[in-house]
TrEMBL record:
Official protein name in the record: GatB/YqeY domain-containing protein
Organism of provenance: candidate division WWE3 bacterium
Gene Ontology molecular function: carbon-nitrogen ligase activity, with glutamine as amido-N-donor
One matching Pfam family: YqeY
Amino acid sequence: MILEQLKTMQTDYLKSKDMPRLGVLRYFISQIQNKEIELRPQKQELTDEVIFRVLKKIIKQKNESIELAKKADRDSVVASEEAELAILKDLVKLFPEELQVQI
């Protein structure tokens, strides 16, 4: 399952002190856990497809943040959001190709 891979990556980033990637990954994992809590009352399981939808949502939010920051001439915000977006797009590679087409 993808979640196990993400948690392994989190440990690796922590050991290597890769703080930018670690921060983005921690946020992503927390959003996955929130989704899992949301699905519990509906008796639904957390699948790789659900996790991918969470990732797509975060990527969409980052793109919107970048656009707003550009309109406000906030170059530092644009740079940090674009760096985080690049890390998130790297995570897309963990998912099966049939899901990757959706982005």
